[in-house]
User: Fold this.
Amino acid sequence: MSTPTDNAPAPSDFIRDIVAEDLRSGKHAKIQTRFPPEPNGYLHIGHTKAICLNFGIAHEFGGLCNVRMDDTNPEKEDLEYVDSIMADVHWLIDGWADQNLGLKKAGAPFYASDYFEPLYQFAQQLVRAGKAYVCDMTPEQTDAFRREGRESPFRDRPVEENLDLLARMKAGEFPDGARTLRAKIDMQAPNVWLRDPVLYRIRHAEHHHTADAWCIYPMYDFAHTLSDYLEGITHSLCTLEFEVHRPLYDWLLAALELPKPLPHQYEFARLNLTYTVMSKRKLKQLVDGKFVRGWDDPRLPTISGMRRRGVTASALRDFAYRIGITKYPSLTEVDALEHAIRSEFNKTALRRLAVLHPLKITLTNYPEDQTEELEAINNPEDPTAGTRKVLFSRELYIEEADFMEDPPKKYFRLRPGGEVRLKYGYIIKCDEVVKDSLGKVIELRCTADLESKSGGANSNRKVKGTIHWVSAAHALEAEVRLYDRLFTVPDPDAGGDFKDFINPHSLEVVTAKCEPSLGEAKAELRYQFERLAYLALDPDSQPNKLVFNRTITLRDTWAKEVKKA
Ligand code: ATP
Ligand code: MG
Assistant:
């Protein structure tokens, strides 16, 4: 599959400008970035932006990008998440920037928890330099004092006592929350992050990577800054909410008097997308509350959900590059994502005939035991995709919505007495409408103009509408999962509980009638059911039980809905 981000011109933004200048000036000889997820959930499309930025820069400037588990929160983290994160990162970068992946050992990511020992030594070093102290206040007191700008009564403990208490914290002598290690900076600093932030806390908890080796755990800022340093990161790219942490990042590097070159942190605006929620915490609520079928539910904005839905890695990367990198918070329309998917699939998807909501038609003037093969184009955008034969016969299925008994003016599909062309085939005329006892239309009896197909005497005869169809006797059945947006409002986070805005119709399952060639559908290919949608096989699919996911409709039907409303 194509990698548009390799064919397209290299993007430009303020971070890439800085990186280029740092290479030009010789400040750095080689670029080293990192992607540092906390393994407390599955990755989502917001992470796609961060991955494509960090790997993109490494790729474009001949550097490396480390994947580092930011795993300092044992209670919330899990091995399942580590594994899913690595699977998702590989899926997104393989074939594009996999040669830029920095790895510790074959296949293994970096872990902040691998640095617990050197981090502890850094902590001791700060204590010895009089730049950190052990504080006995409770977490609540600490927060209150920091808000009020008041100094802890333990702030001026002698170095020896601090070293002793820190060692005893590490040895497990004290219960959770009894003591912390805090940086000694400035309790009056306008930036609260500099008001003696906590560097270590006590947690007697089993860790997914270090088991029970530690009962004190470093806080985010301390672990993140120094992990960046230990890995030789040159450009540490964070989302905007970390801008206020940057003075602390710089303070830690300076306080430890570390030899240069030092990493530098830069911030960019996170991706927010309409009609979805993004944080792992909220996605976990949807999974745990069984609002969806799992982390890889195709309705979720998780990378694994989108992969299952049929979205390709190249379309996601294309999207990430199109939205660009800025410093201004914004809400991106989901249309931008859908556009990236449609423009790729329009070029790559194989066209097939399938009917999602079948209505039977009988061609009364077509011989009962006749079948013929009609020539159908596999992809009008790609002549090399060739053609195939589709079977035609007396009894067919068409889409329910392609017939209306009493249609409005501009309806160019089938109506009583009306004509329409069957794609690749004949013009037919609706002679009779058959209904069941409840008045529901169950069959149309039609006649075909047998001279109207390609090559026939009437082949140039024009009718307004063309519809798709499948031969009833030859049709394969497939389960098709039709997904719609998971939320009914553009910004489910705008107020109240986001779960109140879940779209009750986000999944419809139908049994479709498909042309026989779809029996050979392949998981790695994308299909367009003509006039309907782009689809991909679901992993639930089996040789004799086809299951398709509708990745995306052909057009944006929501834009119309919104206009109507
Ligand atoms: P979440 O709230 O979903 O847990 P997070 O920022 O806590 O997000 P991390 O696992 O810590 O998630 O993120 C790893 C990296 O991905 C960080 O560098 C973070 O800034 C980046 N990131 C997370 N969400 C987004 C987003 N929506 N847009 C861009 N980058 C993001
Ligand atoms: Mg987080």
The first strand starts at residue 32 and ends at 35. The chain has a mean pLDDT of 95.
